[in-house]
Amino acid sequence: MASYGFLGLGIMGKAMASNLIRAGFDVTVWNRSADKCAPLVALGARQAATPREVAASCDITFAILSDPAAAREVCFGSDGVLAGIGEGRGYVDMSTVDDQTAAEIASAISAKGGRFLEAPVSGTKKPAEDGTLIILASGDQSLYDEAGSAFDKLGKKRLYLGAVGQGARMKLVVNMIMGSMLSALGEGLALGLKGGLDGAQILDVLDAGAMACPMFKGKGPMLLAENYSTSFPLKHMQKDLRLALALGEELGQSLHTSSSANEVFKRALIAGYGDEDIAAVYKVIKP
Amino acid sequence: MASYGFLGLGIMGKAMASNLIRAGFDVTVWNRSADKCAPLVALGARQAATPREVAASCDITFAILSDPAAAREVCFGSDGVLAGIGEGRGYVDMSTVDDQTAAEIASAISAKGGRFLEAPVSGTKKPAEDGTLIILASGDQSLYDEAGSAFDKLGKKRLYLGAVGQGARMKLVVNMIMGSMLSALGEGLALGLKGGLDGAQILDVLDAGAMACPMFKGKGPMLLAENYSTSFPLKHMQKDLRLALALGEELGQSLHTSSSANEVFKRALIAGYGDEDIAAVYKVIKP
Amino acid sequence: MASYGFLGLGIMGKAMASNLIRAGFDVTVWNRSADKCAPLVALGARQAATPREVAASCDITFAILSDPAAAREVCFGSDGVLAGIGEGRGYVDMSTVDDQTAAEIASAISAKGGRFLEAPVSGTKKPAEDGTLIILASGDQSLYDEAGSAFDKLGKKRLYLGAVGQGARMKLVVNMIMGSMLSALGEGLALGLKGGLDGAQILDVLDAGAMACPMFKGKGPMLLAENYSTSFPLKHMQKDLRLALALGEELGQSLHTSSSANEVFKRALIAGYGDEDIAAVYKVIKP
Amino acid sequence: MASYGFLGLGIMGKAMASNLIRAGFDVTVWNRSADKCAPLVALGARQAATPREVAASCDITFAILSDPAAAREVCFGSDGVLAGIGEGRGYVDMSTVDDQTAAEIASAISAKGGRFLEAPVSGTKKPAEDGTLIILASGDQSLYDEAGSAFDKLGKKRLYLGAVGQGARMKLVVNMIMGSMLSALGEGLALGLKGGLDGAQILDVLDAGAMACPMFKGKGPMLLAENYSTSFPLKHMQKDLRLALALGEELGQSLHTSSSANEVFKRALIAGYGDEDIAAVYKVIKP
């Protein structure tokens, strides 16, 4: 039976590793603060002392770290993945990182004979727990195939998107659409309310028709209640819009609607709402 | 048993009147070209010679006409609804008309002692046939309640939105959101394709996540196939965006994202795509 | 010698009528509050009791009223211009009015055998006093020619633009460009200041180069000083932007940059800055 | 008497060096293609074989190179400025380069004991010949003062803007405003023409009023004539807009109007007009 490593046991990683263990996979875990390993060991995981040890002993090592700096440290650090990985072993980084970071990790792993997959996910805490993430993989296709049975415990949907970098691009495209949709929803709600319509009825009509979607169902009532408790921080959405617009500059794509939405999100960020939920964009739309 | 009239047997009206008759209602129909009455008479409807006759003999008369001019003619014409309607009888105009037209019809009907409801619908041919329209009613609330059992055969959802005019406003708000969403989808697809992503995979990811909606499922493949066969003409969407922006001017609501989407649709209209489907907005986004 | 009437002695009208009198023209004045006539009578003007009397006795009657309602009253009122005007006499309305008002006045004057010119001006108090207005005339061309020597005392520039309505269109086009320029100036200043540049130096560089213009020279220091004392009320600029965008809808012209500027001005209006100078748009740009 | 070096004798450099020589300065020139030195030697310049030789023998060395790569090569190349510059000598790079390049050159020159000034210019061929450039200097202030008498032969206006990088920022701010103004002019002209106004009259009205500026006087007739012969390539303007927007992202400044103008310029670039004059943005506005 294949052996799997899992690096990073934050909110996402803990839920994901648990799903693998519960499904009967042979899993070795590591986390910077070692105490976070205990609940997973209790479920049946082995525990390793360093990323190096995990990468050296497992067929496929997954990682989900909080940011590019952490992703780099876990790979390039003195007892990092790179020091342990050997010929043919696989490393799947599910963190959301920038192009540059993904490219450098990919090339370093390859140079050591390892195989690499960049696999950011769409979805937050709940889908991680439920095993219903969407996995956007790019890089080594043989590794994508071999990791398939594990991916299927982590997500409800997985796609192989081509060379390293394409996973990140897909995420930008999808989040850019989401940002414009949320800005449009906010404008529609604010306009309707000023026009004497009932907010709940507007959401009701939307939910009964062609635009019915989980996002409107989730964020719509938050806008009406002016409840902006964070599940997706606004600053991250604005960053994704910024990066998507930069991609549009690079590739030569006009983005009139998305650039307007970006300016609206930017105003929300400047107004100090960056750590609130993306729904807080409504605060600069409504006045 | 209450008696119902139905005026206007175009694509929408024919399907809607059929649903009422099949459900066992007592229905009297009229259409400008009388030959269109035959299939409904075959289903069990009575046929009347004029709108006046229908309005004078039925408890509640529904109408769905092609445009404001037709709606006015059927109401104010020499043998029109106004000439027939008596104390307490109800008139439900389901046509999509402008504020001014709705207000004039409402006030004329009231002056004759009748009751009036403006009830534009969201949905096109298929939902009309399936009885799954969304009915956005405003005006006389007692009439809304009495027409309820008939509405429930015509649509899957009905809302009472207040004074005459609010139904039309709801439709503008919802269509404004739709226009921005479609422009955003087009920008996302075009960007992704230029970035080497697969269009079907982009739609796949959207469909698996928080933005999954019937509109993307319907229009997404049309964009990829550059198939713009009309179900909702682009010129009507641009008109709704224009009217929604005018409402924003009147009510004092900033609409950065929607006004950008309107400019994109306007360019599509100027380019000559007004009679194609709203999906044809993609033609000016993609280049 | 030809005789001239002048109706409306507000800030603009007083200055303009004075210039005509000082230039030696035979001028008869009228104002709703008769006491405003005194200073002009002191300069040599005759005074009349009603617009009717002025129109009946003068070859060419000029008017500059505060808004469309006042322009209508002075023309259509019981002792109005229309009651007095006779075959061949001229009426030059220099008020800024909407298309509809101008068209109705034009047609009523013509029906009585009079000749009509719509002649809104570009410029405010100072140019009115200095006789350096820009006169945008449209309507009866023979009247334009005959009024020429008077126009030349009122303005430094006059243009004949065609049929009634074209003067108003010219003003919308020019003010639309002005609104976008001011929004752009505000964005540039705000960006430069956040980037550590000196505001006065930014204005200095602009003033030394290809964008040097009286508007930047006038409004630039106001923005830096956050001095918004009104010479052109912001609400009027937003109205002109709105009307220009409506013209763009009617004529089929995409206006991406101008519609963005309009949304920025609209936010300033919503924020309550409508009665301050157009420079106050900076308040919603700067934060 | 102080001695001056001049590196780079392209269109701009040749005109600028000539102005220094004609004004009686002691000038040593160098150019990659040595034959371009002859006309300047004929005017009285000395000629050097390498940038190193120039920097080692002159008190202040000016350079104006075509792009960042050339600016780097002239500084860091084996016989470059860095190899020659000694304690206290001055290097003034008047090329338009990115932040990173300017910062690296500045720091390398300082490390060798030299003094550095970044001094991009506003203005093209004609102002270079006429000595009417605008010089946007930042870096070593003592060098700015010492180079003053030379700057005054090159330009009509010079500003000291602070630390290295501020000169480039000023240029971005000014060009961002220019881009929005040109897009606004295009929209106004196109709208007016569709509305039956005469293009030359529109320009005439603009030129008589508060928006009168050399740019409208220069570009306006080009738009009407659809003459896009290049003096400022459109691709450079779009690049400046892109960089200004990136600065807005970095500093937290909303730029609704400028980002719309950028999208319009981007469409012109995508349509293939990058090498035509910035006036060619009109081609995507007009249809």
From TrEMBL, chains A, B, C, D:
E.C. designation(s): 1.1.-.-
- Signal sequence coordinates: none
Gene3D superfamilies with a match to the protein in the record = N-(1-d-carboxylethyl)-l-norvaline Dehydrogenase, domain 2, NAD(P)-binding Rossmann-like Domain
* Protein name (Swiss-Prot/TrEMBL): NAD(P)-dependent oxidoreductase
List, alphabetically, the Pfam families matched: NAD_binding_11, NAD_binding_2
Question: Which keywords does this chain's UniProt record carry?
Answer: NAD, Oxidoreductase
Q: Which PANTHER family match?
A: CYTOKINE-LIKE NUCLEAR FACTOR N-PAC, OXIDOREDUCTASE GLYR1-RELATED
Against InterPro entries, the record matches this protein to: 3-OH-isobutyrate_DH-rel_CS (IPR002204), 6-PGluconate_DH-like_C_sf (IPR008927), 6PGD_dom2 (IPR013328), 6PGDH_NADP-bd (IPR006115), HIBADH-like_NADP-bd (IPR029154), HIBADH-related (IPR015815), HIBADH-related_NP60_sf (IPR051265), NAD(P)-bd_dom_sf (IPR036291)
